[in-house]
């Protein structure tokens, strides 16, 4: 008997190209889309190493931990890096980006994270894109946590390098990812002597040996199972409708925010302004005297399938993440998460209203 996922015919170049085209349609982009055979960190790093070098002056926007990583890669490439950091409970504004250009007109590269699952904020990419385009800089965007949860439109926003992964709101696999690349970005990479070539990080290799060569022969054996899972997850989004999927994430975020406020017990939205809160995941601040990671461990012991996590690193003490994305963008997952948190808080002697939280989830689902 053949095994359902071991004894498969090899993935053809034609099928691979079809999956790329489907991802391009999901992004509604006319740019080249390259599917990379690794988790999203692969195109995130490959795009920076390809496009930035010692001649680059980069404005690196930091609204969470990924921005810090990008700054480190940029510095490692020899770029001059201007960090624009905002507190993690807020979003960056287009005016802050405009001010950075006014102070440093030599900026020719901007790196930005659209939404940060790790901090729960989302940034106004369309408005920032206008500023970046006026200044003619290359615009690099990490849309891993926004794709599927809110609109991601590289073409009208003027994004030159837009990286996505399927493992968050797309409800897909983590092992492959994609990047859309504008003509300007290709030109920048082609002119960069330090851009990776004959390397797993190289986007130029894929351009030269795959895209420009008519997409007839793959560079190496693809991650077949992950490619099939990516195809299946894009197909599922197409069937449901991308707008339906993003609306579900917006509802989950609104319901979680309202539900947490109704729950009480000292829980508060970590991102102050609702319009700066990411649809992909809602972060909550725990009251003084409660350790977030302990609360989450206790809540998960009642049901390990709940989409709850403590904040990473230094945020583990104060932040809870409700990862209501993909299959967990449902009223049931949100209600169950808040109920488990409420029960755990009441064990600690804090006063909570679990039923009120449930009503708030229902009323705010949208
Ligand atoms: C989740 C995420 C990634 C991918 O990281 P993983 O931890 O491997 O899932 C990249 N960028 C952002 C902004 C993310 O939220």
Q: What's the arrangement of strands in the largest beta sheet?
A: 1-9-8-7-4-2-3
Quickly count the helices: 13
In CATH terms, what is the fold-level topology of the largest domain? Aspartate Aminotransferase, domain 2
Return the CATH class of the largest domain. Answer: Alpha Beta
Please give the largest β-sheet.
Answer: 7 strands, mixed
The shape, in one word, is globular
Kindly report the average pLDDT value: 97
Bound molecules: pyridoxal-5'-phosphate
Helix/strand order, N-terminal first: HEHEHEHEEEHEHEEHHHHEEHEEHH
Tell me what you see in this structure.
The structure is a single chain. The chain is α/β, with parallel strands linked by helices. The protein has two domains: 13-240, 3-Layer(aba) Sandwich (Aspartate Aminotransferase, domain 2); 242-364, Aspartate Aminotransferase, domain 1 (Alpha-Beta Complex). Helix content is 43%, strand content 15%. A seven-stranded mixed β-sheet has the order 1-9-8-7-4-2-3, with helices on both faces. The protein has a four-stranded antiparallel β-sheet with strand order 10-11-13-12, with helices on one face. The chain has a two-stranded antiparallel sheet with strand order 5-6. The longest helix is centred in the last third of the chain and has 22 residues, at 242-263. The mean pLDDT is 97. Bound molecules: pyridoxal-5'-phosphate. Pyridoxal-5'-phosphate is lined by residues 39-40, 66, 113, 116-118, 142, 144-145, 165, 167-168.
């Amino acid at each position: 008997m053949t095994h359902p996922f071991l004894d498969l015919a090899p993935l053809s170049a034609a099928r691979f190209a079809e999956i790329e085209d489907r991802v391009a349609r999901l992004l509604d982009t006319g740019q080249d889309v390259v599917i990379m055979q690794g988790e999203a960190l692969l195109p995130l790093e490959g795009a920076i190493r390809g496009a930035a070098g010692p001649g680059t002056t980069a404005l690196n926007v930091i609204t969470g931990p990924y921005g810090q990583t990008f700054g480190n890669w940029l510095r490692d490439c020899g770029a001059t890096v201007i960090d624009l950091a905002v507190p993690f409970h807020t979003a960056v504004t287009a005016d802050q980006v405009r001010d950075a250009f006014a102070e440093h007109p030599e900026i020719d590269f901007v790196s930005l994270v659209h939404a940060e699952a790790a901090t729960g904020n989302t940034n106004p990419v369309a408005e920032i894109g206008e500023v970046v385009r006026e200044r003619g800089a290359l615009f690099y965007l990490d849309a891993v946590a926004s794709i599927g949860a809110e609109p991601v439109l590289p073409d009208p926003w003027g994004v030159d390098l837009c990286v996505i992964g399927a493992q968050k709101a797309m409800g897909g696999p983590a092992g492959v990812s994609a990047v859309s690349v504008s003509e300007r970005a290709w030109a920048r990479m082609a002119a960069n002597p330090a851009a990776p070539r004959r390397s797993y990080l190289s986007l130029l290799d894929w351009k030269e040996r795959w895209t420009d060569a008519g997409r007839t022969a793959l560079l190496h054996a693809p991650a077949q199972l992950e490619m099939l899972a990516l195809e299946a997850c894009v197909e599922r989004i197409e069937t449901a409708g991308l707008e339906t999927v993003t609306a579900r994430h917006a509802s989950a975020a609104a319901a979680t925010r309202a539900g947490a406020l109704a729950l009480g017990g000292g829980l508060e939205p970590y991102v102050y302004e609702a319009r700066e809160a990411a649809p992909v995941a809602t972060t909550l601040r725990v009251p003084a005297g409660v350790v977030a990671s302990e609360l989450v461990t206790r809540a998960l012991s009642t049901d390990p399938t709940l989409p709850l996590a403590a904040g990473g690193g230094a945020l583990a003490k104060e932040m809870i993440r409700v990862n209501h994305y993909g299959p967990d963008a449902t009223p049931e997952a949100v209600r169950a998460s808040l109920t488990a948190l409420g029960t755990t808080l009441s064990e600690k002697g804090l006063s909570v209203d679990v039923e009120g939280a449930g009503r708030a989830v229902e009323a705010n689902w949208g």
